[in-house]
Write a structure and sequence with these properties.
The chain starts with a strand and ends with a strand. By secondary structure, the protein is of the alpha/beta class. It has two domains: 218 residues, Spore Coat Polysaccharide Biosynthesis Protein SpsA, Chain A (Alpha-Beta Complex), CATH 3.90.550.10; 75 residues, UDP N-Acetylglucosamine Acyltransferase, domain 1. Helix 3 packs across helix 6. The mean pLDDT is 95. The strands form seven sheets. Strands 5-4-1-6-11-8-12 form a seven-stranded mixed β-sheet, sandwiched between helices. A five-stranded parallel β-sheet has the order 14-17-20-23-26. Strand 2 and strand 3 form a beta hairpin. Bound molecules: guanosine-5'-diphosphate-alpha-D-mannose and magnesium ion. Guanosine-5'-diphosphate-alpha-D-mannose binds next to strand 4, helix 3 and strand 11.
Length: 325
């Protein structure tokens, strides 16, 4: 049984600036809740009882929101890196906070991934194969931005090639691993280590058993503005993807004090936060309009993000845009 996990939430989220200037990427809200909350609820619903949040960049914002986890029905503790230790270093540091026996396995999540994959099936696959590491894989058309992970017919990982220019497979690391403790112990403590560039290749060359669990259900890495806006829209349109999503009505999420003119059309997975004003004749689709923003009459906003308090002049047309603070 796998009951312990680590969430990697310490990255800087550079590609999402300016949204990540004051909010770490995992705390950005999609379908009204921080990405991390969607992940925590999914982990809890799959039998995880204890989670360590591996934080670094803006570490102080996580604990006030998640506390000891009791509000979410799970135990949460924090492993803070004064200096970011990289994905592998973060895993080793967080694992040292878990009381692990030799045969224990730990599930590790990249903090910016939302997926519909069945975690319980991944855990069952890990137990059936008795592997040292079980990586959740998905297939994409262009693997260049990801870890390329070719597997054989049995599912055995052949190599791990992070961000190749000419990928040799379309199966990629989808950012959720199960590590047996003997594999975790191979990661040096207190050093900067990349799990993708250092640990996986080393485990393979040292003869550890790594298996890929391939699942082609919904998957998104919300590392770019476009994918962040899409993730929120997708979760609202398919609330079954996350048990943490609530309050969806007519394909959107509308805050309690938002004022939407009756002639305006708001839909297709949009989020309209508290205190927003949408004036007459506006069309808003697939977009996130943050608290107290004011959208002038006749504006059209599609697949865009508007930060809190922004004033959008009447007649604006915004498509695939980020209007930051
Ligand atoms: N604690 C901590 N410390 N967390 C970190 C650090 C660190 O030094 N560096 C990165 N992280 C966290 C990020 O916050 C994020 O949740 C996760 O590790 C992955 O980092 P990204 O920056 O999002 O990596 P990526 O998207 O370029 O690539 C990774 O994810 C892909 C799938 O989404 C790799 O794991 C790829 O192999 C994978 O395909
Ligand atoms: Mg990412």
């Amino acid at each position: 049984m796998v009951t312990k996990g680590i969430l990697l939430v310490g990255g800087k989220g550079t590609r999402l600036a300016p949204l990540t200037n004051s909010t770490p990427k995992p705390m950005l809200r999609v379908a009204g809740k921080p990405v991390t909350e969607h992940q925590i609820v999914k982990a809890r619903n799959s039998g995880i009882k204890e989670l360590v949040l591996a934080t670094s960049y803006l570490a102080e914002v996580f604990e006030p929101y998640f506390g000891d986890g009791s509000r979410f029905g799970i135990s949460i503790t924090y492993a803070v890196e004064e200096v970011p230790l990289g994905t592998g270093g973060a895993i080793a540091n967080a694992a040292s906070k878990l009381n692990l026996s030799d045969d224990d396995s730990v599930i590790i999540f990249n903090g910016d991934v939302l997926s519909g994959h069945n975690l319980s099936d991944q855990i069952a696959f890990h137990e059936k194969t008795c592997s040292d590491v079980t990586l959740y894989l998905t297939q994409v058309q262009d693997s260049r931005a990801y870890g390329c992970v070719p597997i054989n017919q049995e599912g055995r990982v052949q190599s791990f090639l992070e961000k190749m220019d000419n990928p040799i497979a379309d199966t990629i690391n989808a950012g959720c691993y199960i590590f047996r403790n003997r594999a975790l112990k191979q990661i040096p403590n207190g050093q900067i280590v990349s799990v993708e560039r250092d640990t996986f290749p080393k485990l393979l060359s040292d003869g550890f058993d790594l298996f890929g669990f391939l699942d082609n259900d919904y998957w998104i890495d919300m590392g770019t503005p476009h994918s962040f806006i899409k993730a929120s829209k997708d979760l609202i349109l398919k609330p079954e993807l996350s048990a943490a999503t609530s309050g969806v009505a007519n394909g959107c999420l509308i805050g309690s004090n938002a004022k939407i003119h009756p002639s305006a059309h708001v839909g297709e997975g949009s989020t309209i936060e508290d205190g927003v004003l949408i004036h007459e004749g506006c069309t808003i689709s697939g977009s996130m309009i943050s608290a107290s923003a004011n959208v002038g009459a006749g504006s059209e906003i599609r697949d865009s993000y508007i930060a809190s308090g922004q004033v959008i002049p009447p007649g604006s047309k915004l498509i695939d845009e980020i209007i930051g603070e």
